Queue: 2 jobs
Job 1
Amino acid sequence: MKCSLCERDGVSGLCPYHEAAKARVKATYPLWVKAYGGMDWKDYLDNVKRNIQTGQWAKEIAQFLKGD
Amino acid sequence: MNSGYTLVICEKPDAARRVSDALSGGSARTEEVNGTAIYRFDRRGEEFVVCAAQGHLYGVSDPSDERAVYPVFDVEWYSSDLLDEDSANAARRISAVRTLAARASKFVNACDFDVEGETIGYNLLRYACGGKEKDALRAKFSTLTGEDLVKAFDEMKPQQGQGLARAGRARHAIDFVWGVNLSRALSQSALGSGHRYRTVSIGRVQGPTLGFLVQREREIREFVPVPYWKASGTFEKEGKKFTAGYAEDRIETKPFAGNVRDECAGKEATAAAVRRNSVQVGPPVPFNIGDLQKEAYRAFGYTPTRTMQIAERLYLGALISYPRTGSQRLPPSINYMRILRGIGKLPQYSIYADELMKSEPKPVQGAKSDPAHPAIHPTGENQNRALDASEATVFDLVVRRFLAAFGPSARRELTDVSLAVGEHRFRLSGGRTVFPGWMKYYGRFAGYRDVELPPVSEGDRFRVVDVVVEEKFEQRPSRFNQSSLLEKMEKEGIGTKATRADIIATLVGRGYVSAESMEVTELGLSVIEALTKYAPTIVSTQLTREIEEKLEGVESEGAGEASLLRETVRSITNQLAELSANEESVGREIDSALMSAVAKSFVLGKCPVCKTGDLRVIRSKTTKKRFVGCSNYFKGCRASVPLPQRGTIKATPKACEHCSWPIVDVTGGRRLWRLCINPECPRKRP
């Protein structure tokens, strides 16, 4: 099965690289909530996607999770 | 009684000329043998002939040379011209040595005294001189100055143990069987996916090095930054303003950052603590090759390969000592005073050299040593030719580092002030050099900056002018650059001081990483992914490091290479079994990245005519000639230009500033041309 975001093979719709990036995006959400004193999941994904420090695979995952 | 001459074998032509000049006092005659320059002279009633290799004249290969065949464990040494068409000179040089050896009665190996030099000399003595590798004498030197060369030849001795040559030959054999077998296995796997043969190469040190790069690349691409805040305040005392950062460098939450601003604005601050500290900063240790490469990268942005090449040229010009050394130590035997006197003749260093010679000079020594050579140092010889800009900068760095090693410790005064505003603390830090010591000699490379603070005592009061809070985000990890990768390889104990820079260049050449940013390509990612899954030992540092340690054992003991080769064969056999068992999966993993890399290599840049298509290298089915055409041909774009029919064409990221067509690099033999591919480019018109 191909990854939904690239040409690599994946097990559950994502390749291991994007799977790892997805885990990272999810794990970082509570840290953003704490840092801002609260933040909506969609706002978080928007911010992650826009941030210049975010890695390429994490950006692609943020967009994918947001359903754009 | 044999009446032949003494045949001296040097590593490079420049070294042969210097050896001849030194031993003959400048009276050596230059002759030509089989198209190669040699030197002939008499010394103390004995006739000498000096000839030179040009790097390695022999290399390892497998007798079958069938690229589809593996495993290959029977390897032989061949003259380099049979292995590489760029080494055509090797046959001529070998033939010259063979001709000269026929009339020689004594042989001297005067190649550089390290693993590679020993291997070069050993192979020539063995294969071109009819098995003289054990009978030859060894001349050992660390600089090409006349004085050192004469001393080396006066003190030359029969070769003992030949550990360096044994280790060097073993390293060549191990690296060959490692690289050829695993590369062929990978290439065959990719071939199994249905495309035509493409070489996918991996080497013993390349694998783990690419592994470091891939690991970092993954960290970068998966990175999600976490926000934090930084606060700083502007404070005023007696009309003077200065800025101090909040004591906690990183404020974790936005609400707390807001509190800092609100609770400090318009308040008064008190100097709660003032700490003054005087610290001694010792001189930097003398350069080994790794340190020089790192410092040249930091100071001038030179890649390790470039620094090595420049240092080699300075060594061959007898201006600095042998650069491929691991030592950070300067023994008294190099004669500090003689070198300082020599350096003192150069106006830019004369004050410093005179100053250091007023008392007995004693350098700081580093922890690392090398039994063959001292740390890199200037020789003190006169410059016999003008240096180009890059040579001059590296020479200046080497001289200043040498001078700095003799300098006393510098003293810096550091001041740390804690400013209290209620519960909040701000920190003001400054520092200045009160005694420059060695920094004076090291000049612009010393890298310490003075930050002056106003006079402050405990209890002094300040007005808080304002407090600024900034939102920040964690920075993603940086990619390795050529210098930091070299450092990582050194720390992990893989590769040698002589080979690390070349291995990095090879990874770039194979298309696994980009030269500019060291970003790993899809091909690099796929190769490491496949290897990690099916043959993890190839990318682990452990096995490579163990082999390096055992090779060092061969160097020092002059034995053990046979068992090391057997171990390597066993290890490779195991890795190949794993790769073969999973050939189909390995092929699938590499294939798409390989095809995309191949497709990319044909694209030279964007089409300046239609603005949307890619200009690609195409080979005509009828004429078989290559040319450039636009990918939008079937949509009507007829942009097309001819290409040079010889040499390799590589895309560059640049477009011509006159016509916007791509600029390409064309390499043929050892030459490189950079040109705009548009024959109608306005710049080309007369």
Note: The CA atoms of residues 212 and 418 of chain B lie 42 Å apart.
Job 2
Amino acid sequence: MTSDEVALKALMIAGLEGDSAAHRMFLQRLSGQLRAFYKGKLLRIGRSAAEAEDLVQEALVAVHIQRDTYDPAELLTPWVYAIARYKLIDHLRRTRASLAHVPIDDAKGLLAEDDLVAAESAYDLEKLMAKLPQKMRVAIQCVKLEGLSVAEAAGKCGMSESAVKVNVHRGLRALAALIAREKET
Amino acid sequence: MRTDDLIAMLGTNVEPVNHRRVAQTVSSAIAIGAATSLGLTLVASGVRTDLNAVGAWTFLAVKLGFAVAIVAVGSVHLVRAARPGGERKTPISILTLPFIAMMVLAAISIAYAPSSHWSRMVVGDQWLECLVSIPVIAVMPFAAVVWAVRRSAPTSLERAGALAGLVAGGLSAVGYALHCTDDSLPFVALWYGAAVALCALAGAILGPRLLRW
């Protein structure tokens, strides 16, 4: 297997065990590969590469909220590729483009290239956050943006620790759904 | 939103996750589906009353074996198909094994029976009831299984939907087998097989709508 698979998988597994630094590094490295992947795909079907960053962020959110569907006994690359490809097809469908043919046996191509030019998407996190139910917004604000521990956030928001965790998780899922809905309008 | 900011947000206070959750959720949905299927059969139609008849227990065992085999093979593949990229590891050939085995048994039993019995063995008494009951009983198990798969991230929605339908159909056949009094192998192969296949087909059609994430 490629060194990328081995290195990324190690970071992913550390992240699954709750290592924030490893998880951040994993997402960072993955974002470069996703960016190169989406730019290539979009250009090949005659769409603007500017959409790539939206897709990169969507795929990163999906990888994060679905990370418990990764089976550590399996290779990481096909799992990531399946999500990246699913999000691309979903994006093309939602933006009403003619459905492009995205070949299924292209998993190797995903980790082959890297594009680490930091970039910005069309999404406005603050506006999206404002649409979340209050509990979810507060939980994400405290735990994910201000970096308070779950225990500190629980004390500050008057929620139990498990309620904070549930609201963070549901809030991220709701954010992903808001992003998808934004495209259709 | 800058991608670096998003990564910083996602990578803050990362909780450990349970990578067995998909299998656990799908298994509990299958248990719920089995309970509703058995419950509905017991309440609505009742267990067959002729279990003293010659060979009744044998045929009950065959029907249950067929249905349980479908559920067993189907649920292993359903857990795979619920995960991103899992559709690569769900070969259709293995899923048809219980059906093929049942058809082989049916063919053998027809070959040994006098030709005057053939039409009765195939059509039975309640073929229509069987063909309708199994998909109807399958609705609740299907809902339970779809709920579980929705909590995961299938990337081939048709396939995940078809597997959800297959498992629901199998669970339903487990219940219906307790009620059914048509004791012939060709009957089981044809009508049980067709009813479960119908469930899988319905699942494949509904999958893209129900399982999108």
Note: Chain B touches chain A through 31 residues (CB under 8 Å).
